Amino acid sequence: MGQVMEVPRVDRQAAALIDHTTGIQTDDVHAWFDHLHALRGITIAIPERKITAIIGPSGCGKSTFLRCLNRMHELVPGARVRGKVVMDGQDIYRPGVDPVQVRRRVGMVFQKPNPFPTMSIYENVAAGLTLAGEGDRRRRDEVVEQSLRAAALWDEVKDRLRKPGTSLSGGQQQRLCIARALAVSPEVLLMDEPASALDPASTLRIEELARDLAKDITIVIVTHNMQQAARVSDFTGFFLDGQLIEFGATNDIFTRPQDRRTEDYLTGRFG
Amino acid sequence: MMDRRYWFRRGKDRGMAVLTFLCTIAVLIPLFLVLGFLVRTGASALNWDFFTKIPGAAGEPGGGMANAIAGTLLLIGLAALVGIPVGVLGGTFLAEYPHARLSQLARFTADVMNGIPSIVIGLFAYVLIVLPMRHFSALSGGVALGVMLIPTVMRTTEEIIRLVPQSVREAALALGIPTWKTTVRVVIPTAAAGIVTGIMVGLARVAGETAPLLFTAFGNRFWNWNILKPVAALPLQIFAYAISPFDDWHRQAWAGALVLVTIVLIVSVAARVASSRQAKLR
Amino acid sequence: MTRQAFERDLQRLADDVVQMGRRAGEAIHRAVEALQTRDVVLAERIIAEDDAIDAAHLDLEQRCLRLLATQQPMAGDLRAIASVFAIAIDLERMADHAEGISRAVKRLGSAPLVKPLVDLPRMEARIQEMLRETLDAFRTHDATRAARAAAMDDVVDELRNRVLRDLLDSMIQDPQTVPRALELLIVARHLERAADHLTNVDERIVYMVTGEMRELNV
Q: pTM to 2 decimals?
């Protein structure tokens, strides 16, 4: 049941973006781990202030791709990146660009919540500011409260900001990490399987949160959970063996993918 | 048939359990014998004078080891000043760049230094500091002890920092915090408790060293807080009293040994408590 | 592993849709037969058997829902299940029209026909042809064939217009025939509606295969 018939192949990428501005764009990006060619020529335009999901089987390069967007991939010994990643008309890999500045504009949330173990909830959220030398106490307080509200955590922790970050539950810790990332006002937020270590209820809260955040910032979420990708994202990109196979509006990708490989992946024939 | 083999095996199990239990007891026996002996012989000389007076004239009863206790503490302080910065920063480097040539060399060197006889380290400090200064000093003693402290602190720091999960570093880096700041303001504080424990263990070891102090700190019968002059130290004083012909001084030597062992014990136990509390927090 | 079981379920679903289609087609055929032979007993049987077809529809619906809930299908699988869901409704409506025709037969009883039946059986033959093409298109995932089947609806509509004109003439000429003529009009309307439902099914098949929603009812 359900084969794909001859339908004129529309350039879905172009079509999908007709009414959207680009938040971050990659141009023929390649990435290596020593001699392992992990990403092969990824060209993708991620729409601004929308949620883009990246799906694909294990080892297809989705996390590597994410880490190329905030220049974290190059921190691994032996890792290399080639190609352009453009934000606001500027290539973040241009020689002379400070990767530290890039990482302040492109934030990241990881699979396993990782609050700083020796810091309190307040200190965790403020870490990005404190360690950049933001001295004004009142400004810090404001940003901490704003970020915790944006992460839907303020009400739960406002009375215990001095308690250690690790005293929260898993779902709360992840929201704390999101608040921490938001505190430095990034334009793009990268989420690497943010809910895979959480229970279903916390997962749904994180998804809701992502949708709220997308009103102001661009979100790219890597997930191996297809239902989550379908639920939460506006656009979806399917990766396989280091290549981008298909990209388009989530609704189109999930109901009528154009590439046979996408169809097979979605229907569980592999991966 | 099954029965006999079963009982035989149970017997062997029991036998091994008993044997290992007895061996453990055997390990504890020397420790308790020494402590007991020290307490019995030394406690009698422990009095207020012991902790407040300096040694009296040769042959005269009375006097105490106040200056030696203070001197030991001073030397520990100097050793810490020398050993901690080098050890912690060195250990951090080893942990952050584990495969660098320099790291491999440093590790090898630290291991070798651990094995060098302490008297040789003392000689090194003698040549380096005492000779140019033309006299013995607390400084040279502190340096000698500090040099002995470095390998221990460096290795423990490396271990502890290695234990800090990569996820903590990644979180900091992803926030746009530069690498060096991540190490200094995030990684080291996270490892702080473990590092402190390592330092305390190292200091406890170093506090009781006698040989390196023989021609560096040299010992002193009077109060001295000038680090450029010789200073008294418990191990030196114990040695001096023990080889003297006076009974009173012999008893004081025992008391000094008891105090020294007690200091080491307290620091070791404190380190243990701190590290177990640290483990509970995780 | 789960994929195999899922494939089996999907296949069974497809088989049962074809089954249901055949039964609906048979009901239409026998209903028109009952009209031709004035067999009220047969008409009664068709009316009674409609319950079984309703039950088959509900069963298909339940199974679709269960698959949606448990398998969370995507892409082609999702379209397939959604299509089966919709097709079952249209097939059930077709069977209802067979029932409607049978009720008209009952009402006519043994009264003489207004005019010899020519166009109505032709309509029914066309419908059977449409049904055969449609069910084959469904089984073989042939969107072109489904589109072709839908095109045959034009002929059925044409035939129905002819029946209407003829019956109008009769009614004008002899007002006595009006009650009986109206019944025949009703039968014609049921047959036309049955063909329309088949074009709906064809649209669903095209969607299932290509992912495009196209209007085939010209």
A: 0.81
